[in-house]
Amino acid sequence: MTTLLVIKQFISYGGIMDMDISDRIRLRFNLLDADGNGVLEAEDFAAVADRIILAAGADATDPKAAALRAAHDRYWQSLRSASPAERIDLPAYAAIVAADGWFPQYGQQYAQSLADICDRDGDGQISFTEFQPVMVAVGFAADKVQRLFSSFDQDGSGSIDRAEWVAGIAEFYDPTVTGSVTEVLVNA
Ligand SMILES: [Ca+2]
Ligand SMILES: [Ca+2]
């Protein structure tokens, strides 16, 4: 491999060469690209947020819906402010989200708002009935959602701990962590 090619790849993927991490970044990019035109725009983030809110059965005045919209908007702004382009392509996305400090500053709020809206009855537990429609709205295939839920709900109680789910989303986003959540999401 030529040095130039190595440098190009390094820039394209924020310096992360690991295949699994590239796969997960690609997957997240595709999930966020709601209209599937290959670039991320403000409309994609709004569309994904609306889809999740609808799936969770939250109405427009629900604070959880407002929080989810705000987190998606903040996510978009973090991309937009880091790039001169108005549309964010995969290499730009990969470089921005893999940067040190991105997750605690932007991703954490996103993970929290997603878990909050999942926990519709607010009992601190996410049942499969709560989990399934939201994850399908995020863009995951139904069988993958089932497998992911089962991998969390190891005692088969039918619900997963809300805090545990926030940690799972964080794992999916943190470029330094590889674990069971990412494995199920990327490979299942
Ligand atoms: Ca798009
Ligand atoms: Ca619940």
From TrEMBL:
<protein>
    <submittedName>
        <fullName>Calcium-binding protein</fullName>
    </submittedName>
</protein>
<dbReference type="InterPro" id="IPR002048">
    <property type="entry name" value="EF_hand_dom"/>
</dbReference>
<dbReference type="InterPro" id="IPR011992">
    <property type="entry name" value="EF-hand-dom_pair"/>
</dbReference>
<dbReference type="Pfam" id="PF13202">
    <property type="entry name" value="EF-hand_5"/>
</dbReference>
<feature type="domain" description="EF-hand">
    <location>
        <begin position="140"/>
        <end position="175"/>
    </location>
</feature>
<dbReference type="GO" id="GO:0005509">
    <property type="term" value="F:calcium ion binding"/>
</dbReference>
<dbReference type="InterPro" id="IPR018247">
    <property type="entry name" value="EF_Hand_1_Ca_BS"/>
</dbReference>
<feature type="domain" description="EF-hand">
    <location>
        <begin position="20"/>
        <end position="55"/>
    </location>
</feature>
